[in-house]
Amino acid sequence: MKPNGIKDPFLGSDYSSNSKHKSWSKLLRLLLVLLIISIVGLIYREEVSCWMFREGNHNSGRFKASGADIVESEQGVVAADDGRCSEIGASMLRQGGHAVDAAVATALCLGVVNPMASGIGGGSFMIVRSSATSQTQAFDMRETAPLAASQDMYENNPGANYAGALSMGVPGEIAGLHEAWLKHGRLAWRTLFQPAIKLAKEGFVVAPYLGRHIAKSGGRILNDRGLQEVFAPNGKLLKPGDKCYNEKLAQSLEAVAEQGPQALYNGTVGEMLVKDVSKAGGILTMEDLRNYKVNVVDAVSVNVMGYTISGMPPPSCGTAGMAMVLNILDSYGSSDSAKGNLGLHRIIEALKHMFAARMNLGDPNFVNISSVLSEMLSLSFAKQIQQKIFDNTTFPPDYYMNRYNNCG
Ligand SMILES: *[C@@H]1O[C@H](CO)[C@@H](O)[C@H](O)[C@H]1NC(C)=O
Ligand SMILES: *[C@@H]1O[C@H](CO)[C@@H](O)[C@H](O)[C@H]1NC(C)=O
Ligand SMILES: *[C@@H]1O[C@H](CO)[C@@H](O)[C@H](O)[C@H]1NC(C)=O
């Protein structure tokens, strides 16, 4: 999940041509946007954890909201990786909704227009800061492993952890969005669903981003009746600019809008899901769905470059990872250090080290990660890493402490 401008601020004229621009605050803003989007946007397994860089070199495909790239408002702003969804979120604010109402409607919209990246079958993170209490809460609605999952379930089946029914977790998004809405929402639950239902039912234009994924997954789509109905309705894969209809998703959204999360977690939508998953060789059960719990904890707060950043605690690595990268760049001691092509090189190298370090993290429910976490946040560690970054070369993978070598 990447915002429109992921490439531009790194490579574009902002850095090289206008010396009045404060590159640091730009970088920080960009990374904050990444963080926020990683929170609102939801994410299939690695996609969130590996940040958004897997496909960060293609940014031309997003739908932009009309008008300028920079939006200012005294009242509120919604930023999603598809302009149509940002607009839907903003419309909730205009109706008197809370930021959480906007986030819910935006996330549901993203699940319709970017179904390869997020959706009600997946999981998500959300950070909410209350202006009234200054309390910042983190909603962990990440997928969890089904009860029948086992440590070695992928051992003889590499790839099954990534694609297919065995790779899926117990979906958390609907439960988490509902939990956040219960605490903060002002609009009716069903109101938040209407724009997404309309898009799914009446059709939406395939953006280049989705179009690329359809093309890439062409074989799989054509081999699956359900996927084919949506993404290749006439036996031909949809292309950017074509209209896509997702009637089944509209029906599921309608059921959850009217009956609440129970429709998925203890009702007909869940039953159909379990049936489909089991037919496809998966292990999800109704018990898994009934047992799903959202974790609500305090957000983590990190101080970086004089700013306090609130973000998602582990199992998300976003906040610690971002802090580590910013601290590495900051340790050059100059606001020019991330400028231009050399700056880009340093950012990439810092990211490689961060990806390696984050492989030592784990789910805090199962692993004690406190020392890894404090190392990732420490200024002296950042300095050590910075000294391992050379301006004239890159290194083979081993150099980046790559213990597992599976995030590349
Ligand atoms: C599931 O629904 C049944 C009624 O259909 C109800 O008795 C039960 O308490 C529900 N379970 C959960 C976990 O909500
Ligand atoms: C986790 O490890 C740290 C030291 O690395 C220790 O101080 C702390 O007590 C441990 N926490 C738990 C819950 O075991
Ligand atoms: C690269 O830079 C390092 C330190 O700045 C220097 O020692 C090394 O000789 C340089 N390597 C090349 C090939 O220029």
UniProtKB/TrEMBL annotation:
Name of the featured protein: Gamma-glutamyl transferase
An example molecular function term from Gene Ontology annotations: glutathione hydrolase activity
GO biological process: glutathione catabolic process
Pfam families in the record: G_glu_transpept (PF01019)
Protein's UniProt keywords contain Metal-binding: no
Keyword Transmembrane helix: yes
Stretches that traverse the bilayer: 27-44
Record: residues binding L-glutamate: R142
Entry keywords, A to Z: Membrane, Transmembrane, Transmembrane helix
